[in-house]
Amino acid sequence: MAPPAGPEIWVTGLAWTTPLGDTLDGVWGRLLAGDTGLHPTPSAHPLRTDRAGVVPGVPLDWAPSRRQHAITVPTLAAAFGSAGLDPADPAVRLVLGTSFGSGLDEPTAYLGAWADAAAASIGHPHPPVSVSTACSAGADGIAVAVELIRAGTTEICVAGGADVVTPAKRLGHSALGTMSRDTLRAFDRRHDGMVPGEGAAFLVLETAGSARRRGAAPRAILRGTGAANDATGLTAPDPTGDSVVLAVDRCLAGSGYGAADVAVVNAHGTATPLNDAVEETSLGRMFGGRDTPPVVFATKGALGHSLGATGAIEAVAVVLALRDRKVPPIVGLDEPTAGFPLPLAIGGPAALCPGVGLSLTLGFGGFNTCLLFEGVDDAA
Amino acid sequence: MPPDAAHLVAAGLGAADTADPAGFARNVPSFYADPAAWLVATAAERALDSCAVAVRDDPDRIGVVAVSPGCSAATLAVIARSTARGAVSPLRFAGASPGVLAGLTCIRRGLRGPSLTVTMPAAGGIPVAAVVAAGWLRAGQAEYVLVAAHTIDGDGHHARCAVLRRGTGGPAADLPGLLIPA
Questions:
Q1: Looking at the domain A9-213, which fold is it?
Q2: With CB atoms counted within 10 Å of each terminal CB, which end of chain A scores lower, N or C?
Q3: Do the Cβ atoms of B80 and A106 come within 8 Å?
Q4: What is the pLDDT of residues B65-79, one digit of tens each?
């Protein structure tokens, strides 16, 4: 495949709001400490588990659309602020992703309305680009931003995803059987499903030239994006792992890096047996048997599965992992499934070997997306 | 239009129009997708079938971008009503994802290129889809990209799909002109 055209793309700002808080290093510190934001959460209806990961300070009795707005807007503003940008700057474009957002509980004829409202609230002058690819939406928002920058449409994008816990989503995952009966244990022998979570994360992606002109420093360099559809079913992944491998191969192609250069993978890690099995298979095919295989970590045991936000939240986690050269433990993982082919972060933070980081998301509808980040210490 | 998008050539076109997309749905007891996704999949399959070249030889190299402001709104409304009763159909929950507008075509035709659903009105979403498609084609992530738009007006629902390839030998595809009904 051809190398990526266009400029080098830096991450010059980032922000997140999660069940463990809303400051960059505060949440990161709690993740490294092995904390969890999953707790019993009231529901009007019986569910497989009453646990959920909800954002503190955003009342559950607010309408889902109001909660989505309340989580999205401060996170967007914080992302601009962390990059030293004004939300009203006309040079910036927004790309926002979600899965259902509030649309599963409050019907709407326009699914991008939440994104428009968020842009208006921060005083941004352009209509945002809005995307929805289930649990890959946050990652795909970032990937679309990369294409807009590479095409020369803009030099700066603020991109990511947001999503909320709602009654309909909890009922849906409970009925579908993708929800755990207890709590989320990715890659553990006891894994039996996900626990819903919510949050938002946005990255400021900027050409190196623009950043240098502004005096903005890189937090990381986004070296690649890749995607592949499973073409298998709406909820079950392709068990062969073929399309996950395709997504990662496409991400690495032209990035200047190969599989041997990958030091860390943030797995999707939903803890459904189907998801964990396909990740075990595909990661083993790509990275198994190497002298220094990448360490695998996952954040959903701490933050819940935030659906359309998770790809962006996990991208932030990879950037911070590359900064600190360590990853947090996988909350809920005590005894890995037999034969897991790569080292997992168990019991405490795990150190990284030199190399780059991948963030992998697998969404309903077959949306597999991979992002490749290079830490600034690794940059030539 | 960005330079990459100016080098897109339409290798095939397809359309499907209806007052009620449910007429296009081929749901069965074990599989459900929102009717609008079936309408888009119909237009996409007609576009693939219209291609003079063997576009379908390598389904791993065919990507899909769908553009729709409402996507699966009909099924979302059904689930919202049932949520109040404390019961959500797992089948409909799975088939209500807005992403199904791109995903169903991938499932139906075994397409494993990149895929995306843009939840915007056609006028704003199609130029974004063109940039994304051009990027996938230029980087070699796909050899062909199906770009489909779902629109609703007083006559009902419309789906238009173009099969795009990279090329400079023919006229650049006027995507808004091809995908938005006159």
A1: Peroxisomal Thiolase; Chain A, domain 1 (3.40.47)
A2: C
A3: yes
A4: 999 999 999 999 999
- Section A82-105 average pLDDT: 97
List CB contacts (< 8 A) between B112 and chain A. 228-231, 242-243, 246
Write down the pTM of the prediction: 0.97
Residue among B5, B90, B131 whose CB faces A172 most closely: B90
Q: Which of A69, A124, A135, A251 is catalytic?
A: A135
Pairwise CA distance, residues A241 & A362, whole Å: 11
Domains defined along chain B, listed by start: 5-179 (3.40.47.10)
The shortest C-alpha distance from B2 to chain A (Å) reads 6
Q: What would the two tokens of residue A132 be?
A: 């929805």
**CA gap A371, A355 in Å, rounded:** 14
Of chain B, the end-to-end C-alpha distance in Å amounts to 21
Give the model confidence (pLDDT) of A231-277 as tens digits: 998 988 899 999 999 999 999 998 999 999 999 999 999 999 999 99
Conformational region of residue A143, where left means phi above 0, alpha means psi within -120 to 50, and beta covers everything else: alpha
Chain A CB contacts of B87 below 8 Å = 171, 175
Cα B93 → chain centroid: 20
Strand A350-351 and strand A38-40: pairing? unpaired
Q: Which among B66, B41, B148, B60 has a CA at the least distance from the CA of B110?
A: B60
Contacts of B33 in chain A (CB under 8 A): 234
Which entry of A69, A124, A191, A305 is annotated as an active-site residue?
A305
Cβ–Cβ contact A346 with B under 8 A: no
Asked if A130 is an interface residue toward chain B (Cβ–Cβ < 8 A), one would say yes
The interface predicted TM-score (ipTM) is: 0.97
